[in-house]
Amino acid sequence: MTVIHRIIIGIALLSLALPADAQSYHGEATYYSNRFHGRRTSSGERYHKDSMTCAHRTLPFGTLLRVRNKKNGKEVIVEVTDRGPFRKGTIVDLSLAAAKELDMIHAGVAKVEVTHVDPSEIKLQPMELPVLVEYKPFLPEMKVYDESSGKSYLLSEWKKLVPSNVKMLLMQQQGQKKAQQKEKKKKQTERRAKDKKNMARGK
């Protein structure tokens, strides 16, 4: 074993001996193609493009990593569920959702800093409950036929016309009453005339 090999092995062992939260990795990040959606990863889980996951060559499955895009400073926390990437200079392969969070979809590749995240450091945000909205079924508005005008109106329109409709209805009722009284007087007059005529014949 040469001296160079020993130095390389020593550096590797030293990096493994360092606490996980002290390690940081610098390199490029890529993301999964859509054709990998639904396929099984090295951990046995199926890859989902909307999950916050990634592939790393050596870190244990379930490890949480904070990935920061050096260009725009955006960060995302992902879980290691697969092995890779195997492209030279690339240290992590992100899910599509994670890549969107880092705003690297258009570029395809981004220079990133990757650090280990202790699960105890992650603070769960309180979940906001949805606001319940009273369901009011929509019903078509009824139409009303107005006898006074001979027209059909929507119920809301007809309500606005009620005062004038009532007035017209009262006028019609008064006119009908007068006509009935006139007809009654006419019949009474005719009956009296007939009675007088019959009495005259009887004499």
Q: Could you explain the architecture of this structure?
A:
This protein is of the alpha+beta class and 203 residues long. The chain has helices at residues 3-17, 96-101, 155-160, 162-202, and strands at 24-31, 53-55, 64-69, 75-82, 90-94, 110-117, 143-146, 151-154. It has four helices and eight strands; from the N terminus they run αβββββαβββαα. The strands form two sheets. A six-stranded mixed β-barrel has the order 1-5-2-4-3-6. Strands 7-8 form a two-stranded antiparallel ribbon. The radius of gyration is 45 Å and the shape is rod-shaped. Residues 7-22 have low confidence and may be disordered.
Helix content: 25-40%
Residue runs with pLDDT of under 50 for 5 or more positions: 7-22
Count of extended strands: 8
> Structural class, please?
alpha+beta
Largest sheet: 6 strands, mixed, barrel
- For the record, the count of structural domains works out to 2
Our count of helices gives 4
Superfamily at the CATH H level of the largest domain? RlpA-like domain
Question: Any idea of the CATH class of the largest domain?
Answer: Mainly Beta
Mean pLDDT: 79
Shape: rod-shaped
Helices and strands, in order, run as HEEEEEHEEEHH
Instruction: Estimate what percentage of residues fall within beta strands.
Output: 15-25%
Features of the shown structure:
203 residues; alpha+beta; Barwin-like endoglucanases; 6-stranded mixed beta barrel; two-stranded antiparallel ribbon; 4 helices; 23% strand
Layout of secondary structure:
Elements: H1 3-17, E1 24-31, E2 53-55, E3 64-69, E4 75-82, E5 90-94, H2 96-101, E6 110-117, E7 143-146, E8 151-154, H3 155-160, H4 162-202
Parallel strand pairs: 1-5, 2-4
Antiparallel strand pairs: 1-6, 2-5, 3-4, 3-6, 7-8
